[in-house]
Design a protein that fits this description.
mainly alpha, 82% helix, 0% strand, globular
Length: 241
């Protein structure tokens, strides 16, 4: 299998154009498995968030340790991305689900800040937006590589702006960040959905390579969904009194 870090969507697109009908069936199974893992991760995040939010004291403790939580999530995310070619599919799945569970702790804090109704509204808006973009990215004949490259570069700028916003509080800057965040992750959702379709080609169906590609694809889509949700929540979320 080729390293995931060397993945080239344009090259994969050309290879995908010549796959056989039997391979198309395997490809659909791969895509279904990938979105299945993503759905499991989102469900785990939600269950952890709902469970933890039942204890205000526990949520307060997590909020006080938010920096450690973020560091832990970064370590898990980087560990999965950099070790994916050296670890088993079982280990990759465990890291992915551990990350999803840890993000449930972050969501539990949001459930104490925003009303339940507004959180659910943000979730359903995100689900509808994500679903439409994922379908388009999967079935469009357009090459979305350039779109993904632009969104990737814009994401770097967004991260820098968020760091600046942490030290310089500006309502205008925060609004700009939220608008940019929604636009960037809508673009990345479509691009990554197309990328998932081509990731099938890294290994034969049910091979170790294919299983790891499926987990990595689910992780990428999960990050798109979660980040899109977080930015949309800033628009529709109503804080508790």
């Amino acid at each position: 299998m080729s390293a995931f870090g060397n993945f080239n969507p344009a090259t994969m697109a050309r290879a995908n154009a010549s796959i056989s009908p039997e391979m198309e069936l395997d490809q659909r199974r791969f895509i279904h498995r990938t979105y299945g893992w993503m759905a499991i991760a989102l469900a785990l995040t939600g269950l952890v968030a709902l469970g933890v939010s039942q204890s205000p004291k526990l949520v307060a403790s997590i909020a006080h340790a938010w920096l450690l939580l973020i560091i832990g999530q970064v370590v898990l995310a980087l560990g999965l991305q950099f070790a994916i070619n050296r670890i088993s599919s079982v280990a990759a799945t465990a890291l992915f689900l551990a990350y999803a569970a840890s993000f449930g702790l972050t969501i539990s804090i949001l459930l104490m800040v925003f009303t339940t109704a507004s959180v659910f509204s943000a979730f359903f808006i995100t689900a509808a937006t994500f679903g439409g973009l994922a379908l388009w990215g999967t079935f469009t004949n357009k090459d979305l590589t350039k779109l993904g490259s632009i969104a990737g570069m814009a994401l770097v700028g967004l991260i820098i702006a968020m760091v600046v916003s942490f030290f310089v509080h500006s309502t205008g800057l925060e609004m700009l960040i939220n608008v940019a965040g929604v636009l960037i992750f809508t673009a990345l959702t479509a691009y990554d959905a197309q990328k998932i379709k081509y990731m099938y080609l890294v290994g034969a169906e049910n091979s170790e390579a294919s299983k790891k590609a499926s987990v990595m694809g689910a992780f990428i889509l999960y990050l798109d969904f979660i980040n899109l949700f977080m930015f949309i929540l800033q628009f529709v979320g109503q804080q508790r009194e």
